[in-house]
Design brief:
five-stranded mixed β-sheet, binds magnesium ion, alpha+beta, 424 residues
Length: 424
């Protein structure tokens, strides 16, 4: 964490919390005395499980999602059966194939995963009005005060697991605790198909049972830094004074570590999400430093956003890229152009330039967000048409694809992805 020490963990969210005085996250004293109940719900091997649910013949088999064997590319997700072969996300597909030749290799069907994701999020809405989705397959549910409706927290969690199973045929792991940080750790505890509650008064015992490296938000760099001074367990880390922690890892990281080993929510997710005009973000199933996967994700986001822009008859000039790293440091970088972005392809290329400015190529990335703002009607003429020739054609192609899509054809952005990949 030394490199990012000045920025700290999830600086963006933290500052929002401080401004809003979010009582749940801001008051450390109340953490254990409050009667709040949070669930962290996390789907098990989500993409692969969707494939296994849609295709019963894949069940019980190693399913690997990403590029096809023989092509360049990486594993984007895989089933538990594939993990037994040592396969994991972000591994080059060639390596995965070397480990498991009989695996079922499938392309990413993001649209389908999003469809199921929406279904699951709708289920949550039936259990609580306070749902905070943090990725395609994860959400926090504030279940405080729902006992009369759904019974004890464990009973409510069983109901949620069962409802998801009935409606989507998928397995879920749920962690229950008095704050989001502990709930997030708890959902991992009994995965897959897990249900674990961190009981009041047992927070410290629970934390002591967790490996230092598994503490949510504690990055590899920090782990090495701590190992160098012989701190290898949660208990040992808890014994370090705040002043010393700040000295070792930087002010905000020090405070972060001091809080989490005591089970105090550091406020990574404040629950207040601003919705900028046209933007989208994706959290990787596993943090990744694979630049190909990262760029493919940006490509996917760029096309998604651009279709929305085309559909709304708008255009935008400000490109915004958000990166959240493995240690929850979040950076957002914007660039406002003198002309409006003309295609998903152009948006992609601009975003990659921003990525190259802010990413060292080594730090694992947890989340990528892309947005386009400074929107106006696309009937407004641009003041300066700097690159009319380069991207005009691309915009026309995308408009055609959008028109075809509207008429119900199966032509999707997958073909666009292909088109762009072949081009570049
Ligand atoms: Mg998951």
């Amino acid at each position: 964490m030394t490199q990012n020490a000045g920025k700290g963990f999830g600086t963006g969210e933290k500052s929002i919390i401080n401004v809003m005085h979010d009582p749940e996250n801001n008051s450390n004293r109340d953490t254990f005395s409050s009667a709040k109940v949070f669930f962290h719900v996390d789907m098990d091997a989500f993409y692969a499980s969707v494939e296994q649910s849609d295709n019963p013949e894949y069940r019980g088999k190693p399913v690997i999602i990403g590029a096809s064997p023989g092509k360049r590319g990486v594993v984007s997700a895989c089933s538990y059966e594939a993990r037994k072969f040592g396969i994991h996300s972000a591994m080059p597909i060639s390596q995965a194939y070397a480990r498991c030749r009989n695996g079922i290799y499938l392309p990413v069907r993001m649209k389908r995963y999003q469809e199921i994701s929406r279904q699951i999020m709708e289920i949550f809405d039936d259990f609580t009005p306070e749902v905070l989705q943090i990725s395609i397959d994860e959400a926090f549910l504030n279940m405080t005060g729902t006992e009369k409706l759904f019974g004890s927290p464990t009973e409510a969690a069983e109901k949620i697991k069962l409802t998801i199973k009935e409606k989507t045929n998928l397995n879920t792991s749920i962690g229950i605790a008095h704050n989001k940080f502990l709930a997030k750790l708890a959902s991992d505890h009994d995965k897959p198909d897990g249900l674990y509650e961190v009981q009041k008064g047992y927070e410290i015992d629970f934390l002591n049972s967790i490996k230092l490296g598994d503490l949510w938000g504690l990055g590899k760099k920090t782990l090495i830094l701590l190992e160098n001074i012989n701190i290898t367990t949660v208990q040992e880390l808890r014994a370090v004074k705040l002043r010393d922690l700040k000295h070792i890892t930087g002010n905000s990281s020090g405070e972060f570590l001091f809080n989490i080993v005591r089970g105090v929510d550091p406020g990574i997710y404040s629950g207040k999400i601003k919705k900028p005009s046209v933007s989208n973000e994706i959290t990787f199933e596993e943090d990744t430093e694979n630049s190909e996967l990262i760029k493919l994700t940006i490509l996917e986001l760029a096309h998604k956003i651009f279709f929305r822009i085309l559909e709304s008859g708008e255009k935008g000039r400000t490109v915004q890229l958000k990166l959240r790293f493995t240690d929850f440091t979040t950076v957002t970088i914007r660039e406002t152009l003198e002309y409006s972005v003309n295609s998903g392809e152009e948006l992609y290329k601009l975003a990659v330039k921003l990525l190259e400015k802010k990413w060292d190529g080594l730090t694992a990335v947890r989340l990528i967000g892309l947005g386009l703002s400074s929107l106006e009607s696309n009937k407004t003429p641009d003041q300066i048409e700097l690159f009319p020739n380069t991207y005009d054609q691309a915009r026309k192609v995308e408009q055609v694809v959008l028109d075809i899509k509207k008429r119900g054809s199966k032509l999707t952005k997958a073909s666009l992805l292909k088109h762009t990949r072949d081009d570049s």
